[in-house]
Design goal:
The structure is a single chain. Helix 7 links the parallel strand 7 and strand 8. By secondary structure, the chain is α/β, with parallel strands linked by helices. It has two domains: 173 residues, Rossmann fold (3-Layer(aba) Sandwich); 173 residues, NAD(P)-binding Rossmann-like Domain (Rossmann fold, 3-Layer(aba) Sandwich), CATH 3.40.50. It is built from 13 helices and 15 strands. The strands form two sheets. Strands 3-2-1-4-5-6-14-15 form an eight-stranded mixed beta sheet, with helices on both faces. The chain has a seven-stranded mixed beta sheet with strand order 9-8-7-10-11-13-12, with helices on both faces. 34% of the residues lie in helices and 17% in strands. Its EC number is 1.4.1.1. It is an enzyme of class 1 (oxidoreductase). It holds the Pfam family AlaDh_PNT_N. InterPro entries: Ala_DH, Ala_DH/PNT_CS2, AlaDH/PNT_N, AlaDH/PNT_NAD(H)-bd, NAD(P)-bd_dom_sf. Keywords: NAD, Nucleotide-binding, Oxidoreductase.
Length: 366
């Protein structure tokens, strides 16, 4: 199979879909790999690194799309790429279709086969291709939140860890999934007081068992959230519904109940956000302020640490890329039910229920 690795063109996205180590494995399995010139530079991988393991470097993104049977990337195609995706082509990447009707319609029109990293699901119900980026984003959420709590960034002027004689800052984490656990771990490590909420009591028991005593749990409901937002300095949105639009746990009117300079980091922005006032931002222009509440809603947070993120991503995607390349998507998905759950759009037809629910379209036929 011919696999193409284009350069990411989303704002400040420096990750790349495949490391040289991943390309080495594909070439070893007799596949052809085309890498766009400069695609890996942001992650610290250079054209000669790819050439040394057998890749062919192509000058333009158009060539990569035109010559490849399968495109392996990091982020969803943006508007400039819509017309490059071909009928019958496999596109393997993060799509987050439920948050973008325009992207969904464009991929339907392309009649390509879209396999989404974020909906590949293993037998335990975990999301193996989303997990490493959730780990990165969860940890980064505290770094960014701590920075934007500083007064020059319009935050409350609170040091999360506090100092002797001054109480530490308070962090509220919405969701006890991968993002929430990693965020809580980082915040606790800084010495902050952390409250993590979820509707899943098993997850809350797990948090209670593994976290230090200054990480406390509460059941997630509107009453508790309204109570907690009044006293917490940093709020992390880490709620995920597999393949679906995130629920709005914080509504616009709740902002008035927060103290001026409170910071919200909505990691769920890729899925529409779990805060009603969330709108996607970029690393170039990461924040905006509504009702004196600072919103950080960068849609590709791990793109700020591209070396770590690219290596972590290739570690988990490569086995699936090899299956798709070795067997073709139909055989691979028939044999691997985890991979089959990644199928979102096939030959112009939506095959993933949560996408149609997000846009109130006719349901997918079973």
């Amino acid at each position: 199979m011919i696999i193409g690795v284009p350069k990411e063109i989303k704002n400040n996205e420096s990750r790349v879909g495949m490391t040289p180590a991943g390309v080495f494995e594909l070439v070893k399995n007799d596949h052809t790999v085309y890498v766009q010139a400069g695609a890996g530079e942001g992650s610290g991988f250079f054209d000669q690194d790819y050439q040394q393991v057998g890749a062919t470097i192509l000058d333009s993104i158009k060539e990569v799309y035109a010559l490849s049977d399968m495109i392996v990337k990091v982020k969803e195609p943006i508007a400039e790429e819509y017309g490059l995706v071909r009928e019958g082509q496999i596109v393997f990447t993060y799509f987050h279709f439920a948050s973008s009707e325009a992207l969904t319609k464009a991929m339907i029109a392309s009649k390509s086969t879209c396999i989404a990293y974020e909906t590949v699901e293993d037998e335990e119900g975990t999301l193996p291709l989303l997990t490493p980026m959730s780990e990165v984003a969860g940890r980064m959420a505290i770094q960014q939140g701590a920075k934007y709590l500083e007064k020059p960034a319009k935050g409350r002027g609170v040091l999360l860890g506090g100092v002797p004689g001054v109480a530490p800052g308070k962090v509220l984490v919405l969701g006890a999934g991968t993002v929430g656990i990693q965020a809580a771990k980082m915040a606790a490590g800084l010495g902050a007081h952390v409250t993590i909420v979820d509707v899943n009591m098993k997850r809350l028991r797990y948090v209670n068992d593994v976290m230090p005593s200054h990480v406390v749990t509460e059941f997630s409901n509107e009453f508790n959230i309204r109570k907690l937002i009044k006293t917490h300095d940093l709020i992390i949105g880490g709620v995920l519904l597999k393949g679906a639009k995130a629920p709005n746990l914080i509504t616009r009117d709740m902002l008035n109940e927060m103290r001026p300079g409170t910071v919200i980091v909505d990691v769920a922005v890729d899925q529409g956000g779990c805060v009603e006032t969330t709108k996607a931002t970029t690393h170039e222009d990461p924040i905006y302020i509504i009702d004196d509440v600072v919103h950080y809603c960068v849609a590709n947070m791990p793109g700020a640490v591209p070396y770590t993120s690219t290596v972590a991503l290739t570690n988990v995607t490569l086995p699936y890329v090899l299956k798709l390349a070795n067997m073709g998507w139909r055989s691979a998905c028939n044999l691997d039910k985890s991979l089959a759950k990644g199928l979102n759009i096939v030959d112009g037809e939506v095959v993933y229920h949560e996408i149609t629910r997000a846009f109130d379209w006719e349901p997918v036929l079973a």
